[in-house]
Amino acid sequence: MGIVIKKGRYVYLAYRSGKKVVHRYMGLLSDPDVVGKLEELARQRNVPEEFSYLFWDTDPEGIDLKKNARYVIERVLEMGGLDALQWAQLIYPTRLIIETMEINRRITPRSKNFWRIWLERDHAF
How far is CA 14 from CA 3, 8, 20, 28, 55, in A? Predict the structure, then answer.
């Protein structure tokens, strides 16, 4: 997902739908609501300060949430709480979180068991 600004005025949200790239019109760059949405999207690209403790061995500002999705999910599931999971679910689809939980060897069986029970409320395995 990305932001496209056309002619310096019009803001579009760009994302893939299958093999196609779709541009969804958000509004004018001068609109305060659009500026607020852009700021929110920019904040979602970085690890929030409240969850930086999960990434104690690296610089949280250097983590690319898209490229390092499985690493971020692993840390959230192994060392984070429910608030960290809610943050991760805002960024990643729950299906990716479940897949990562099932295939990742760094997540302990105890953590896997807890998250399986917790996530089963919303999704069937």
Answer: 6, 16, 10, 15, 29
Compute the average pLDDT of residues 31-53. Answer: 84
Judged against a pLDDT cut of 80, whether residue 121 lies above it is answered with: no
Tokens 């929110």 sit on residue: 40
- Residue 65's H or E segment, with its range, is none
E strand residue ranges, 1-125: 2-6, 10-17, 20-28
For 63-79, write each residue's pLDDT tens digit. Answer: 888 889 999 999 999 99
* Domain spans in the chain, listed from the N-terminal domain onward: 2-43, 49-120
Output the CA torsion 61→66→71→73 (10° steps): 100
Its pTM stands at 0.67
SS3 113: helix
